[in-house]
Amino acid sequence: MKNLDFIYKRHSVRKFKDQDVPMEDIKEMIKAATHAPSGKNVQNWHFVVVKDKQKIQEMAKLIEKKHMEIANYTKDEKKREKFIKFLKYFIMFKNAPVLIMVYAGDYPVTALDLLKEGGASDEEIRELLKPAPGIQNIGAAMENLLLAAANMGYGGCWMTGPNYARSELAEFIGFKKDGYSLVAMTPIGVPDGEVKSPPRKPLEEVMTVIE
Description:
Layout: H1 5-8, H2 23-33, E1 45-50, H3 53-71, H4 77-85, H5 87-90, E2 98-104, H6 112-117, H7 122-129, H8 133-151, E3 155-156, H9 166-173, E4 181-189, H10 203-206
Antiparallel strand pairs: 1-2, 2-4, 3-4
Helix pairs in contact: 2-8, 3-9
């Protein structure tokens, strides 16, 4: 059986040492990310690396401001309090030495145009788009990035929660690329303290064999 330890080294890391991550190491992680599979080999990803600690702190403040704004949309105090509790997970990157923002570009979904020309119903269109192949490409790239980071002695945490503030974040960093939008991010750094992964569901629960 081949050694798969490089997979099991990956954990969600939320606390980091105050230690720099050399740009050469970051480039190696992103290079690994770009070797992920993508439909039609579109490679509809772009990675923005933020190493300015002050900017990272300001980004956390933008998320906090947006979070509280959304929390105030409801008059249900219990619902509001529950939502506010998630904030700490969405800004835990604020003390990381590096933040990598992952952008997704347009992706041509096979058969979409033909279905539209054929008068397909909205339900048929939704069913076709449900697998979100363009975003699956990004997921594969992000996993490669995190596996590479872990194998190099670093840690990260796949984040999509702060996406409600993606317009504010994108405007703040000043990055623009036609057809691309922010979909995920991960802090990167040397883990501070022991990291444990939550238990996994047994294979019998998540695997079906048809012979």
